[in-house]
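Hello again, I could really use a second opinion on something today. My current little project is about how a certain protein chain folds up. You're getting the sequence in one-letter code plus the fold written as tokens. Here's the protein in full, and shout if anything looks odd to you:
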Amino acid sequence: MVVQVEARKLSLPSPNLVSLPSTTSLLFDPISLTLALRHSDSSISLYPSFSPFSIPSSTYLPPPQTLIPSPCSSSCFLSLTPSPTPTPPTSNPPISRSLFVAAGPADDDGSKVSLRFYLLLKNQRFVKAKMSCTQTGLDFDPKLGVVVVDVCHGVKVMMVGSVNYFALYSVSAEKILVFGVRMVEGAAEDGVDLRLVKCAVIGCCSPVSAIRVAFGWLILGELNGVRFFPLRKLVKGRVGSRRKRGFGRRENAYLNLPNGVCNATEENADFDEDLVTAGLMVTSPGGAGDGINVESSDILSGGNMDGKPGSLKLRSLKLQQDSGELGMCFVPFNVAERSAKSQDSTTEAISIQALSRNKFLIVDSNGNLSILHLPDCGPALMRHLSGTPQVCQAAVFPDSLSSGQTLWVSDGSYSVLIIVVPDEENANGNDSSNYEVKLVEVSVSGAIFVCESIQDIVLLASNTILILGQDNLYAYSIS
């Protein structure tokens, strides 16, 4: 078998020669092929339509198309996908647009968070979006072009995005805010008018070490395990009374752990992965009743059902991290399967990445790898991967059609290993009990060595990786 490898080395601008500071981490959007470089002064450089193999090797990386000034404490990409509407066969389907969001302190004391939104236009340039937000605690400043969120920034915030939604975690405020973003109804196809809605607020009773929004799930990395939420139920809100929603004695039948309810899967058995038509919770101005379900496209376009402003009031859902409501549950690490040196009661999930619609790769603070499996029915499973080195960084490319999954992992030194994970579900004949007993054995199919310490890795495609060294970027495509 012949393996073809294409490689590029791109030198980063030296901080001694230009005003641009050193690069500390990478972020890549596979939809728009935009590369984001995070710098040591908390500024960010954006490179739309990034293709490392179109740049001559051993040359300096060109200047960024957009430079977002500091402070940027966290950032993420969103894909803005219009709601599906019936269109004639000859009409072109709506096109998704890429949105970059940067968070930072809104003032010197960090009492609030500022959000800056940059929308990618057809000419492959990022411009500041004009935001519309009417809820309490959200205020758009047209002079600065930022949305000020009334939540404490404090020492740290984390932000992750997916399709039409993103989540913001404030460590100091002990809150997770889930937001929805849509194009304003009637705006030009290449317009910059967006609508921002705060969908849910989750009060945190335990620290969150990692967060991910993907494939209709909100997943939190916590002490000794992870917690997952069906995202659609968060943005849709509660419907009916508490008794009608089924939160009664049956909920107590599930195993209660210090982190909350474990494997309460009946609430998410009928979860619909299509978030495009997810609803938001609204109530009448008097606050009476249990609420009205309307489509998010209706709310984000006008805030009401009849087109008359003020007839309905947007209301974000509020709940606690360990309440067990809306199908959330906590899945612990299977400590019994780990070696004695790894059995640490303070193990945290520090990285969460999507493998497919119902499988997620978890990296813990000991450098171990696990796979979280969220089946369509039945309990969630956490499987430990055996025979892997201690991992500092991991990168995956979601692929639900492959018979196995390929992981790219680094120990933070000078090498990247390519690991193949077999499809254990098919190998066990869909027997969840057998799947739960055995470790997942992996194999190493390749390795990449670089001459400088690795700071970060991202996948540009399923077979293409970008490696951030101390002074250079390395791109490898293997076929």
Observations:
- Residues 239-312, 337-343, 429-437 have pLDDT under 50 and may be disordered.
- The first strand starts at residue 5 and ends at 11.
